[in-house]
What does this fold into?
Amino acid sequence: MITIDGQTFSFEPGETILDVASRNGIFIPTLCYLKGATPTGACRICLVEVDGARNLVASCATPAGIDMVVSTDSPRVVKARRLNLELLLSSGYHNCLVQDMEPDAWTDLQLKGLDRDEHKDICPAYGECRLQAFAVKYGVKTGRFEPKETPYVFENVNPFIARDFSRCILCGRCVQACNEIQVNNAISQGYRGSRSKIVASGDRALKDSDCVFCGECIQACPVGALVPADVVFKGHLRTDEKKVRTTCGYCGVGCQLNLHIYEDKVVRVTGVEQSGPNYGSLCVKGRFGYDFMTHPDRLKTPRIKRNGEFSEATWDEALDFVTDRLRRIKETSGPDSIMILSSARITNEENYLAQKFSRAVIGTNNIDHCARL
Amino acid sequence: MLESIALLLFLGLAAGIGLGIASRIFYVWEDPKVLAILDCLPGANCGGCGQAGCGAAAEAMAAGRIECNVCVVGGFETAKAVGAILGQEVKEREPDFALSSCIYGVGEADPIFTYNGATDCRAAVMLYGGSKLCTIGCVGMGTCVKVCPFNALSMGEDNLPVVNHDRCVGCGTCVEACPKNIITLSSATRRITSEYVTDECTAPCQRACPTGIDVRGYIREIKKGNYEDALRIIKEKCPLPLVCGYICPAPCELACRRNLADKAVAIDPLKRFVADYERTTGKQIQPYKTPSNGIKIAVIGGGTEGMTTAYYLARLGYEPTIFESKPQLGGILRHAISEDRLPRDVLDHDIKGVLDMGVEAKTGQVMGRDFTVDGLLKEGYDAVVLTTGGFDSRQILNPAFSQQGNVPVAGVFTMLDFLMALSRGQGVSSVKHAVMCFSGEKTLETARKLRGSGCDKVTIVADKPSAALPNELRGIHANPVEGIEVRPSNSIVAMGGISDHLCRIMIQEVNEKGDICGAQEILDADLVIIPGARFPEWVFVHANGKPETPSDELKWQTIDSFQTFPRDARKGIIGAPEPGRMSDSTAVVKAILSGRRLARAVNQYFSNGVILPIEHLALEAESIPDVTELHHITTSERVLPALAYAEDKTEGGAMQLREPLPAIEESDAVKEAERCLQCGLICYKKG
It folds into this structure.
C-alpha cells in the first residue's frame, strides 16, 4: 500500500507514483511524461515529496514502494515546481503573457523576436501550451533570470513540420514519441549542456533525415516548438478553433482524429488520444492531408467527357451514362471484359456491395481493391 | 395686608419690566429653520455626524456647512425631512455599521499576565497594552458597550463585543472609545477601498490572497451552512468566484497555517463549492451596492482587470461601460486559458454576475478604430480607464500588426508600435518635443531616428540613476548632444493635453530606490514613447473637473492611479513591474487586485480629489506577528482533493488536462470547512 496525499492505495509492482496517482484521480502535473514510453524525468515538474527521501523525487520515474508516504502538493513541492517553471520560461524565447519583467528588458526581448519572421506573430501554441498553463496554474513570477539565447535557428524547410528551437524546452517528449511510440528513430537528443538540441540524423533538417512526417512529435510537443509548418503564421488563437471529432478517411484502420476548424476551414488535425485504434497517433496523410477539402480544383459534380472535353453533369445523367455504357460493354464484349477496383477508403459494407455488384450484376470475378498500403 | 399685596404687585411689575427690557437687550435671533431641523433630528446627541450634538448639527445644516444627509441615526427619512425644510435634493447615503474584528476573547487568547484592575479597556491597555500576547487584540472590558448610545453593542460569551445590526446606526462612538482600534465602521465603500494593514487582525491566508478575500469568514459561514453569506463574503473582494475556484493558483493554501501540522485547508475548492451552489440553485447573490451617483466611466478592455474595475465602480455607485474589442468579454480567461481548464459556461456565469451589478458592455469596439480616449471624454464620459491588458492582447487583436487609423491615446506610442510604424516609413510629422521612457537597448537608436525624422528635441527619461544606464546614454548625459537630452532618476508622473493632442507631461525626480520624492518639472511634449507594448493602467479625466461645454475644447489629464500603492514603491505612471505595476497577467487574482485598486483610485479622485496611498499595507509588509508552530490541535486529513484537473483515468495520455472538475459534495465541504483553524494574527482554534 502507498499513501498519497493522505489517501491509501494499492498498487501493482512496477507502477510509478505517477501511475498510482493518476489512476486514482490525483493530479500531478507533467511536461515530459509520455504515456507508453520510458519515463525520462527530464522536466522535473512532476516532483513530489516522499517522506524519508532527502530530495524531491520525479514521480514519473520513481516506482511506488510499500508504505511510501507521498505528498503531491506540499509547499516545498510547489516551490520547486515554480522554480523549475521559471527556469524553463527563461530558457529561450517565450514571449508569453506569463512573462513579467522590467518594461525595458521586456522591450528588448520583444524586439529580438521581431527581428525574426517566425516570431512576429503570437506563439502558435498560445492557449494550448502546457508550460503556459502550468505557469498560470502555479502563479509563476518570472523576470529573475535573463532569457537565454538559443544558438539554433528556426527550421522551416521541411514539408510539414516547423521546428522552433528557441521555444523548445528539451523535455524530450518528441524523442520518446518518435522512438518509442512510432519507432521511427528519426530524432534524438544531441549535443550537451547549453547547446543541447533535438537532432535528426546527425543534426540535419528533418526532410534530409529518416523522418516520415507522421507528426507524432507535433502532437507530443507540450509547447510551441514543433508545429505544423503551415499554421505557424496563421495568426489566430488555438482557443478560437472549433474541434470536430471524426474518423480518418484515408484507409480502413479507422483512426480517430480531431479536425480543428477556424472560420469554416480545417486548419489543423490532431489525433484523439483517449480512444483507439490510434490513441493519438496518425500517419502523414491523416495528419497533414487535409488541404484537398477546400482545394479549388476539387470536383464537386460528376463530369462526362463529351467531344474530348469534360463537362459538368448531374448525378442522374452520370449514372445513366455509366449504366448504359457498362450494359453495352457487357453485351458486346462479355462480363470478363470489365474489372471493378474498389477502395480501402470506403467501408467494409461498401466493399462488400462492390464485390456483390461485380459478381451478381456484372457477372465477373474481376474485383480487387487498393489495400496495398 | 394691602401693603404687602401692593409690594408684591410692585415687585412683580418691576421684575416683569426688568425681564422685558433684558429680553429686548439680550435678544438672540434664532433661525426658525434650525428649530424645525432640530425637531426632525433624533436627539441622540451621538456625534456620529461629526458635530457636537444634534443642535450643533442642525445649525450647521441650516448654514450649509454640512450635507443634510449626515445624520447616521435618522437615516434617509430624516435626511429627506431636513432636505424638505432646506429645499435641497437629498442623496441617499450608504449605511455604515460598526464591525468588531477580534475573534478570540481574553479567555482563549494567549495571555501575558492576569489583569485585575479597573474594568475599563482604556485603563487596561495602559498596562503593557493589555493582558493579551496579541498586541492588537480586544481586552474585553466592554468600554464600547458602555459608551454606545443606542444599546447596539453587548459583550458575547467569549468577552468580545457583539454588534446588533438592527440597532447600530454607525455613529462611531464605539470606534472613538476603543483603545485598540478593534471596532471600525464598515460600509460598502470602506470595504471596497480598504486593504489589509499591519495593525489589523488578519489570517495568513487572507494576507496571501492578492484579492484579500476574508477566507476565514467564508469558511466559517460554510461550516454553519450559510452558503449564500459565504458567497457574499467572497464577492466582496472577488467578482469572479467560480473562475477563481477553477484556475486560481491558490497562494492562500500555501500560506495556510495548517501546513505546519498536516495539510492546508482546501480553500480554493471550498470557494468553488459555494460558487457552484449559486450556479446550480440559480439564486444570484450580489453584495451591497451603494446608491448611484451618475458619474459615467469608460473602462477600456473587458478582461479580468477591466471587468473587476467596472464591477467595483458599479458597486461604488458609478455607471461604468466596458469597451471590448473581441465579440465577448473575458480577455485572457477566454482566449488564452484552454477550455479544458476553464469551461466557458463557468466564465459566462461569472461575467453575468459582473454585468448584473450594473455594468454595461460594448463588444467589438477596437480602441483606435472605433473610439479614442479623447473621443470618449468628448462623448460625455467623466473618466476613461485603460485596462487594456498585457502585450499579447494587442497581438491577439492584430495578428498581422495592421496599423489602426487613429492613435488610441493622443500622442502616446508604445516602443514596439512606434518602431514598426517607422520601419513602414510612417515617420512622425511636426513633432517638436518627443519624450521617451528608457526602453532598453534600442532607446538611443530610436531617439536618433526621431531626430532624423524632423523632431526638434528628444528627452530620454529613465527612472534609474545614470550609473545604471547603458554607456552611450551615460555619455550623452555627461556631454549633451544637440537635440537629445537624458534625464536619469526621473519618472513621468502626469500627462495632459488638449483635444487630440498631447501637450505636456510632468516628470519628478526619484531617489536611488526608485521612490518618487524630488522636484517636479513640467515639460512641453507632443509625443511620448513608453516601453514595452502595453498601455499602463492610466485614468484620463477632464482637466477642469467636469465635462466641457460643446463649444469649448476638450482638456484632459491623467490622474495618479498608481498612487494607491504605498509611497515607497511608486514609479510614476509608466508601468513598472511589481510592486509598482498594477496589472499582472500571471494570475487572475492579481488582475482582480489591480482592478479593485484602480476603482479605488477613481473613487478617491471623484469623491476627495486626491488619491491617498495605502500606508502600512499588510500584503507587502515584511514582518507581521505570526506563529511558527501549532500546539494543541487535532490533525485531520484533507477531505477535498487538491484542485484536481484529474488526468484521464481510463485511457489515453497524460497530455490532456481533463475537465470537468468533480463536483464537491456538500457533506465533504462542511467537513473540510471544519478543518479551518479560524486563525487570527497569532490565535487559532485549539482542540
